[in-house]
Structures are given as structure tokens and as C-alpha cells.
Write a structure and sequence with these properties.
Layout lengths: L53 E9 L6 E11 L4 H11 L13 H18 L6 H16 L3 E3 L1 H6 L11 E3 L6 H16 L3 E5 L19 H16 L8 E7 L5 H20 L20 E6 L1 H9 L2 E5 L6 E6 H15 L3 E4 H6 L11 E2 L6 E2 L3 E9 L12 H21 L5 H10 L2 E6 L1 H7 L7 H29 L5 H20 L6 H24 L13 H6 L14 E5 L5 E5 L2 H8 L4 H14 L27 H11 L10 E4 L5 H13 L4 E6 L39 E8 L2 E9 L5 E8 L5 H18 L4 H8 L8 E5 L2 E4 L2 H13 L2 H7 L4 H8 L11 H4 L8 E2 L12 E2 L7 H9 L16 E3 L2 E3 L11
Parallel strand pairs: 4-5, 5-6, 6-7, 7-10, 13-14, 17-18
Antiparallel strand pairs: 1-2, 3-13, 4-13, 8-9, 10-18, 11-12, 15-16, 16-25, 19-20, 20-21, 22-23, 24-25, 26-27
């Protein structure tokens, strides 16, 4: 395989950061040094577009809950191997031009050409290539990789590059705030501009004096928490103004700030307010009408903890809170008690997370230019204030050979090309503020990362939470960052190191040595990780050698981002550093419709574990039916762990996620976007343990989420996974009204209770399940008749919003008021009131035996059988009558279904995403928000969420 080779130039360290001031280095200067690019993926004389088969598709995206069309563009052109999900997302999110006009992009070719053409022209202009021929090869290689989903730039590149809009390429921003009103107001304005462009920002408020300090005028200061209110309101307003996605922000406060306790408890107190308002009848769901009245909901909060504080926690000592203006200790607190408060608040509402300040700054390449005080909203980008980072992610599954070995050499060449492109983008990029532009051009921070790690580990037969899995992940991550910095050193020889390098040379070289030393400490277990680490070791050797002469072009090179939307663009099974969500996925079909499918990683993993085709087919069929591998025919129990996922029957423990983060952290310039999910039954002590181990294991940042700790999320009636042998429980979503069709089955009873005559009319859904009732009692126009009409209406609406019938039965059973007494119903001989009779009758007709037995409601025949000692009806629960908002029964795929493989079935009609499918499989609600664009349930992507239906994200990926 040919290589992408740089031609370093001695003395390049004196070159300016932009690479544009030396005219001799610009294209047009004959003999100017530049990169020699050799072909890796492409064939000379054949354009990448001519190697694939193209087809026209119709993209029609609807809100699956009400059928309304959110987006429509017909006749778009994509390669035949791109999934419909990827097609939908790229068409709706990234194609530019007004829909329905000739100017609208309608082909993936146009999109790739728009972006790649801009990169290549900038590379030529700024002297990156040795010749026009090298520029052409670079263009073809980049095009081929994007076309074949080998990597993807972050979303702002696709939104903006090559358009008339500002050429913003960065998704992640860090701001700064000083202890002045002017600076605070600038913070509000700068955040607003960033949110308007669909990106996110983070800020540390620790410079703002505390509420326990005096102003120069003699009055008390407001403190940073008070100013957070204004910023939160601003973010909420701009979020609702039609940006490409929701505002994403991070707010950080140092642990020694005098207002730290108020900051810690801020969101926990608001969460309690949400509960109180919800119980009072207000709409406090995500996107609800009343949720806007709650403060601090638009930001992730993190406490920046020091080693001094963590050692005080460990020793049970005191810790000083310091004045912002003088640095003096204003108050001493018990470190353990304060740490407990952090864990308690995180247990209650998932905030705050922790950022480990000394660890972050120990890996800082530019310590002479200032400390790292903050991060972007997802905590993966950590660098100087007023800076930004543009991201790109590699699809790891594209480097897995047929024999399940990782192609390290091919990966090396791909990373070289991507890093080169990412650095070129800084030459032409626009930035939201002057300060951010200046800092980014001076330090040229990059953030290469990857997606599909979880799929790669499963495919190679590694459990995510295993020594072997962590070794392979660490080796690949080390290789990626080693190549990125080696290429950065080569670029420094061509177009100069970053402008801030000379001042920070010692610090940068020290961090490079730390990375290389960590690489040597990787403990390998299999030939795969041994081979990858060997290549990584050589790359770090070259990196140090070339960097000692040239310096480096970039102050940082790598992060692990959520890869939400771009992960779907690349048809990745897993995002970022995450494991697989579940073994069964929800998939959209090119011809319309959808289906559920066992992940294609599963058969590959089984093959790598030594199973034959017949065994694989049987196991896949079992997974398709049950959603997990427990008791799968022929599958050895010792292999169960390979198929452990983030959710489901066998979910990865919280510490398993932390251990994986710790394995790859030493090889990342920044940090890792990931939330460690914890079960609902986790304790505050468990949270303390996770946060403490994160520090011990050398993480830079860590956040947790305990299932069902927030009110503002979809609700569930079945929040615990069912045990073996129990009937499947059915998930009920947040209140969404399921209206009855115009034509529906119904039945009417006449009844008499204590001499009072009336009628009960009940209407059902076509797929069964009570949906409405009408009660006729008393003369038309009487007070009683009016009350009964209003009562019937309220019960009917409640049923349509998913309130279970058994709940109403339990509430109205045995209510006592006149009329009461004998009835004319053989199954209900005596009633204590009309309502007592009506809901007993409804229970008998619409509830299964098990539910009625719990309530003590039986037919005359069942009571007779009990008297005679006979068994009641089968204990099997009638799931059809329990359904209220979804149809959970999978339907077999048609025999002629195109592309059908063993284990596939048509997706349940009322399911809109993999997360919802997983909920139905396991009877356990996922704490993920509903997409504000199309209404489907989003799935986790790092510390954010992504919608599989339309690609919308809740963060900055």
C-alpha cells in the first residue's frame, strides 16, 4: 500500500501559525516545499464516483406520531450501499439551497464536491502540496473516503463550507468570563451567536467574585449562580428560535469557589421544583408548555476539582474556599461532606459532573499560554479560553479485514489525510468572535476521533468490559493520536508550527513523551492489539523525532466526540467510545417502511468466536425473538459478555464504562464525551465511588446519569427489566394522545343499580384496548346527566393519553354513595355505587384475569370454579389488552422482503427508533428525550443524544 509522505523542512519552526506570511511557501512559487501525496484508496485515471453504482431515492420524513411531513425531497442521488437512514439525514441536514428550487443540492456528489473542493483550493493557496498533481490525488483520496463512509467531518463543515454563509468549521467553543459586568454581558452575547449557528460553548465562571465578597461600592456581589440565570434564559430563547439544533452549553465552577455549594445544588433544587409542579398538574415534560418556568435547564454543570481537594476527601480533612479577589481562605469545609453533596446532587438530577483540573493541566501542551479552565458542552474539547476545535471521526469498522485483524497501516494513511484536511480548514475558517479566531489560528487545535469502537470490539470477539477489549481500544487510540501528531510535525516542516509553539515547546514535547510512555505501558493480550501497538510505537518514535526538529503544527490533535449525526451519516452501529446500545436495531428501508434487524456485527462476532453457520443462524434467530443472548441455543455462557450492551438483559456495569474511558484517556489530547449510565437502584455511595475512581484512574472529565432521576423525560409503567418467566411489560411513553379512528368497535350495556337505570357505551381501538366510555344516567339536561357526561369525557381522554384502565378501576372500586344495592348483572350482583358497578363491568370485559384477580373482580363462572376448587384461567397475561400507546408484537418479514436475512422481522408499527424497540423488548424505559423535530425517541451518543429518524442532536457532535 502506498504512503502519504511529507517533506519536512528544517528550520520550519520559525514559520508563522497561519502558513501564509512566507510568499515562497505559497503555491505558485516554483520548487516550494510541500506534501507529496501518494494514492491509498483510489486508482489513477479513475474518479471515485465512477467506481460506485448510484441510484435515485425519495426522501420523505414524517413525524411518526401524527404522520405529518417534516421534510420532503424526491429524486436525490446516493450510492446504492448507503442506508436510507444516512440518505435521510444527509439530505435533510446537509444539502444546501431552498427546498423545491433548482439551486437545492440533490446529489451526494454535489455535497462532497462543495466541501472537498474548498479544502483543496485552500490547501493549494496556502502551500500544503508539492504540486498540482499532489493536490489532485489529495482531492480524490478525500472524496473516496467520504463517499465510502471511512470518516466524516463534524456537522458545521457540512452546514457551512463552500456556501455563502460564514465558513464556520468548528462545533466546539470555549469562552471566558472575567469579574466585570462588561465581560459578563459579552459572555451572554457570544454564547448567543454561537447557539444561533447551531454549536455549543463552555465557560468557567470561577473568576466572578462570590456572593460572600464585597463590591468596590461596598455592597454584596451577586455571585456567579445569579448570572447563570440570565445566560440560561438567553440559551432557552435562542434554542426555540429555529436554530439547527438545541443550544448546548457547559457551565463550570472551581471547587474552591465560596459559592460552590449553591452551584452544586442549583439543578437539584430545580428538579424538585419540576416534581412539585408536575404533581400540581403543570406540563413539565421535555418541550412542555410549563418547563420554561424552570431555570438552569439549558446547561450541563460541572465542578472543577483539584488533586488537593480529592486528597482531602480521601483523608477526611478540611478544604479551604478562597475569595476570588484576594485569594484568601474565606471558609473551611469538610471535604468529604462537600464531595457527598456533589454525589447527592448528581444522584438526584445527573448534575454536576466532575472535571479533574490537575490531570487536565498535566497533559496541557501550552502551559505557558494559560491554564485550561473549561471545556465544550460535551467535555471532550479542553484547551485555552476563547478557542475552538473542529472535529472529524474515523469509522473503525472500515479498517477491519475479513480475517478480523485491524489494518493498522491503512488506518495510518487515512489519519494522515484527515489530519491534513482538518488543519487546512483553519486557513479559511470563520469564527463567531474575534478572540476565538485569534486563539484558534494561533494554536490550531484539532479533534480527530472515531466511531464504531463498540461494534469493532464485538466483531473481533472482545467484550467491551474486558482486558482484551480495553487493550485493543487503547492501541488503536494511541495509534490514531500518534499518527496525528506525527503528521502535525511533518506539516510544521512544510507550513510552519503553530504560532504559540515557540513559547510552549518544552511543555508540548513533555506531553508528547507522556503519550509515548503511556503507549509503552499498554498491556497486550492478543495478536491484534500486539500488532496495532507495534505500529503505534513506531509512530510515536517518528513523532518525537520529527517534532524535535520541526515542532508541531497543532497544539492538540485528538478528542473522542459523541459522533451523533455524523455517526448515522457513516452508517455506524455505535457512536464514539460507546458500546452497542442493543443487539436488535430499528432500520428504515430504501423503498419505504421499516424493519427491526439483528445487528450485523453479531454474526461476524459469532464467526470470530468459532461458531459454524448453522449455529450462527440459530443464535441470530433467538436474538431476533428475545433481544438478548441469554440461553441462546448453542451459545457458550463464557461468550455472553461479548454481546453485552449499554441497555438490555445484560447491560455493562457502570465501572465497565469508566474502565474503558481510563484505557483510552492517556492517548487523547482532549477528553472523552461519555455519560456513565447507572441503574435506578444505584446509591449515592455508588456515585461517590464512580467519581472517586475516575480521579484515581486518570480521567479528565466524568459525568453520570442514573436511570429515571429526571422528571423531564418519557415516563414508563415498566421501569424494571422483567425477570425470566415473567410476562413482558409494555412501555408507556410521555403523555401523547392516541385518538380512536372514526370507525371503531364498541358495545353497549343497559344496567340497573339499586333501581336506577342507565346505559354504558364503551368504544375500543381496532387492535383492542378500551379507548372511550359514555354513561347515560338521569334525565337529559339534569345535573346528574351533565356530571356523568363530564365524567365520561375525562375518563375517555385519560385512557387515550395512556392511563391504564386498571388504575381507574382501583380508584373507583368500592366507592359508596346512592344509588347502590342490587343490580341486574349476573357477574356483579351487588354494587356500592353506580361507579363501583361501572368499573367492575369494564374490568370484567377489558382486563385480563391476572389483573382482575389482584383487584378481586371475577365473573360468576370464575367464582363458581373457585368454590369448586378448580383452577382459574391460564396465568398468561393478555398483552393485547395491556397496550395503550404502542403495538409491541413483531410481525414476520415478508418472504420477498428485499435484503431479508435470518432473524429479521418487520418493525412494530408504532415504534420509531432503536431505543423504542429496545424498550418494548425489555419492558424498561430509556431515559432519552423525544426528538423535537420528528417525535421519535433519541438514543445516547456520548454525553448527548441523537435522533435516528432525522439526525437531530441535543449537543455539539
Amino acid at each position: 500500500m502506498t504512503e502519504t509522505v511529507g517533506t519536512p523542512a528544517a528550520g520550519g519552526a520559525a514559520e508563522s501559525g497561519s502558513g501564509t506570511k512566507n510568499a515562497a511557501r505559497r503555491r505558485g512559487g516554483k520548487g516550494a516545499p510541500g506534501l507529496r501525496i501518494t494514492r491509498v484508496f483510489t486508482t489513477e485515471g479513475v474518479h471515485p464516483y465512477d467506481e460506485v453504482t448510484w441510484e435515485r431515492r425519495d426522501v420523505v420524513m414524517t413525524n411518526w406520531r401524527d404522520g405529518s411531513v417534516n421534510f420532503e425531497q424526491r429524486g436525490v442521488e446516493f450510492p446504492e450501499f448507503w442506508s436510507m437512514n444516512a440518505t435521510n439525514i444527509v439530505t435533510s441536514k446537509y444539502f444546501r439551497g431552498a427546498v423545491g428550487t433548482p439551486q437545492r443540492e440533490n446529489s451526494l456528489k454535489q455535497l462532497i464536491d462543495r466541501v472537498v473542493g474548498t479544502y483543496v483550493r485552500a490547501g493549494v493557496e496556502h502551500g500544503y502540496f508539492a504540486s498540482d498533481a499532489d493536490a489532485e490525488v489529495f482531492e480524490h483520496e478525500l472524496t473516496w473516503m467520504l463517499l465510502h463512509q471511512v470518516f466524516a467531518f463534524n456537522s458545521p463543515v457540512w452546514f457551512n463550507v463552500g456556501t455563502k454563509s460564514p465558513q464556520q468549521v468548528s462545533a466546539c467553543f470555549i469562552l471566558s468570563v472575567d469579574d466585570t459586568m462588561e465581560s459578563i454581558l459579552d459572555w451572554y452575547k457570544e454564547e448567543g451567536l454561537i447557539f444561533k449557528g447551531g454549536s455549543g460553548a463552555g465557560v468557567n465562571l470561577s473568576r466572578i467574585r462570590s456572593s460572600k465578597e464585597l463590591l468596590s461600592s461596598g455592597g454584596n456581589a451577586s455571585g456567579p449562580v445569579s448570572f447563570m440565570r440570565g445566560a440560561d434564559a438567553s440559551a432557552g430563547t435562542i434554542k426555540s428560535g429555529g436554530a439547527t439544533r438545541r443550544a448546548a452549553k457547559m457551565v463550570i465552577l472551581d471547587v474552591d469557589h465560596p459559592d460552590i455549594e449553591e452551584f452544586i445544588e442549583t439543578k437539584a433544587r430545580e428538579e424538585e421544583k419540576i416534581r412539585v409542579l408536575r404533581d400540581a398538574g403543570f406540563d413539565m415534560d421535555l418541550g412542555g408548555n410549563d418547563i420554561a418556568s424552570v431555570q438552569y435547564q439549558n446547561a450541563n454543570n460541572s465542578v472543577r476539582v483539584s488533586d488537593e481537594f480529592m486528597r482531602a476527601v480521601e483523608a477526611g480533612g478540611e478544604f479551604g474556599l478562597r475569595a476570588r479577589t484576594t485569594g484568601e481562605v474565606l471558609e473551611k469545609v469538610d471535604a468529604k461532606r462537600l464531595f457527598r453533596k456533589i454525589a447527592q446532587a448528581a444522584w438526584e438530577c445527573a448534575d454536576p459532573g466532575l472535571q479533574y483540573d490537575d490531570t487536565i493541566n498535566d497533559w496541557h501542551t501550552c502551559p505557558e499560554s494559560g491554564r485550561i479552565t473549561a471545556s465544550n458542552p460535551c467535555s471532550e474539547y479542553l484547551h485555552l479560553d476563547n478557542s475552538s476545535c473542529n472535529l472529524a471521526s474515523m469509522n473503525l469498522m472500515k479498517f477491519l479485514r475479513e480475517d478480523n485483524t485491524f489494518d493498522a497501516q491503512l488506518f495510518v494513511r487515512a489519519v494522515e489525510l484527515v489530519i491534513t484536511a482538518m488543519d487546512i480548514s483553519i486557513c479559511f475558517a470563520d469564527f463567531p468572535t474575534k478572540a476565538i479566531g485569534e486563539t484558534t489560528r494561533k494554536f490550531r487545535q484539532l479533534g480527530i476521533g472515531y466511531a464504531n469502537l463498540g461494534a469493532l470490539l464485538m466483531a473481533t470477539g472482545h467484550a467491551y468490559d474486558s482486558d482484551g477489549g480495553r487493550a485493543l481500544a487503547a492501541a488503536i487510540t494511541s495509534l490514531m493520536t500518534g499518527v496525528a501528531y506525527r503528521r502535525s510535525a511533518e506539516l510544521a516542516g512544510v507550513v510552519g508550527p503553530y504560532q504559540g509553539y515557540a513559547r510552549n515547546a518544552d511543555g508540548h514535547q513533555r506531553v508528547m513523551r507522556k503519550h509515548a510512555a503511556a503507549n509503552d505501558m499498554i498491556r497486550t493480550y492478543h495478536s491484534n492489539d500486539v500488532a496495532v501497538r507495534k505500529v503505534a510505537t513506531e509512530e510515536w518514535r517518528k513523532c518525537l523525532e520529527i517534532g524535535a526538529v520541526n515542532g508541531w503544527r497543532n497544539a492538540q490533535s485528538s478528542v473522542l466526540a459523541p459522533t451523533g449525526t455524523i455517526g448515522l451519516m457513516m452508517d455506524c452501529d455505535t457512536t464514539g467510545v460507546e458500546p452497542d446500545l442493543a443487539l436488535v436495531k430499528f432500520k428504515k428501508l430504501v423503498g419505504g417502511g421499516s424493519m427491526q434487524i439483528v445487528n450485523q456485527t453479531v454474526p461476524r462476532a459469532l464467526k470470530s468466536l468459532g461458531y459454524v453457520d448453522e449455529q450462527i443462524e440459530a443464535i441470530v434467530d433467538y436474538i431476533a425473538e428475545h433481544g438478548h443472548v441469554v440461553d441462546a441455543p448453542g451459545l457458550r455462557p463464557e461468550h455472553y459478555e461479548v454481546f453485552d450492551c449499554a441497555m438490555g438483559e445484560r447491560s455493562i456495569p457502570a465501572m465497565g464504562h469508566v474502565r474503558m474511558m481510563a484505557a483510552v484517556q492517556p492517548f487523547i489530547s482532549g477528553a472523552i464525551s461519555k455519560t456513565v449510565n447507572m441503574p435506578e437502584q444505584a446509591t449515592v455511595e455508588d456515585v461517590e465511588r464512580i467519581y472517586f475512581e475516575g480521579w484515581k484512574l486518570g480521567l479528565k472529565a466524568l459525568a453520570i446519569y442514573r436511570d429515571n432521576c429526571k422528571v423531564g423525560q418519557p415516563l414508563s409503567a415498566g421501569k424494571t427489566a422483567r425477570k425470566s418467566g415473567e410476562p413482558e411489560k409494555v412501555v408507556e411513553y410521555r403523555p401523547v394522545r392516541k385518538r380512536l379512528p372514526k370507525k371503531r368497535p364498541s358495545q353497549t350495556w343497559s344496567f340497573t343499580v339499586g333501581g336506577a337505570e342507565g346505559y354504558l357505551h364503551a368504544g375500543s381501538y381496532p387492535d383492542d384496548g378500551l379507548g372511550e366510555i359514555f354513561i347515560k344516567l338521569g334525565k337529559q339536561g339534569s345535573t346528574l346527566a351533565g356530571v356523568m357526561d363530564a365524567f365520561s369525557m375525562s375518563i375517555s381522554v385519560g385512557l387515550q393519553y395512556g392511563i391504564p384502565l386498571e388504575f381507574y378501576v382501583s380508584k373507583f372500586l368500592n366507592q359508596r354513595f346512592e344509588p347502590a344495592g342490587m343490580t341486574d348483572d349476573p357477574d356483579v350482583r351487588i354494587a356500592t355505587s353506580v361507579l363501583d358497578y361501572l368499573f367492575r363491568r369494564l374490568a370484567l370485559d377489558y382486563l385480563p384475569y391476572e389483573k382482575r384477580a389482584q383487584l378481586g373482580i371475577f365473573t360468576a363462572e370464575e367464582r363458581a370454579a373457585q368454590v369448586n376448587g378448580e383452577n382459574g384461567p391460564s396465568s398468561e397475561v393478555d398483552l393485547e389488552t395491556l397496550r395503550s400507546t404502542v403495538d409491541a408484537s413483531p410481525q414476520p418479514a415478508a418472504a420477498d422482503e428485499p435484503g431479508r436475512r435470518p432473524g429479521q422481522t418487520i418493525s412494530p408499527e408504532r415504534v420509531g427508533s432503536s431505543t423504542e424497540l429496545l424498550e418494548l423488548r425489555h419492558g424498561k424505559a430509556a431515559d432519552a428525550p423525544l426528538c423535537m423535530t420528528c417525535g421519535t425517541k433519541m438514543r445516547p451518543a456520548g454525553s448527548c443524544y441523537v435522533c435516528e429518524g432525522c439526525g437531530s442532536t441535543s449537543g455539539c457532535s
